[in-house]
What we know:
Layout: E1 14-16, E2 24-27, E3 32-34, E4 39-41, E5 44-45, E6 51-57, E7 60-65, H1 66-74, H2 77-85, H3 95-100, H4 103-111, H5 115-142
Helix pairs in contact: 1-5, 4-5
Amino acid sequence: MVSDPHDDGSSLQRKPVPGFEDLYEITRRGDVYSKRLRRFIKQQERLDGRFYIEFQIDNKVHHLPLSETIAQAYLSPDDQQEITSSVPRLDQLSPEAITAHPSVRMLSQRYNVAPGAILSVLLRAKQDANEEVDICGSERAAS
Length: 143
């Protein structure tokens, strides 16, 4: 196993999975620990290459996107705002350009989370900005 020079050991830290705090914990790198099973559970990969975790509670299957779950557990709203403001003209970038943006790796190291968590924040902010534009555009057209 190759050690990460930027890892200070905190990547082994676990925090509760939002919405499932009594059952699951997640590390900064996306390893999910089941408190009931007392072991890490396997991640699954979607056809588009994104990872998620799947588990069943009370006969209901839950699918949680791994990157979004890391972001929710480790990045405060202030952190997320700082991340989105660090990428200029985010609303004008394509999802592909956001994915390839050089800031993603730097921000991942700064906040000590998997790059996917940073991408999740940026893509959600872009989507929110686009929805805001659509709403404003609709309102202007109606008046």
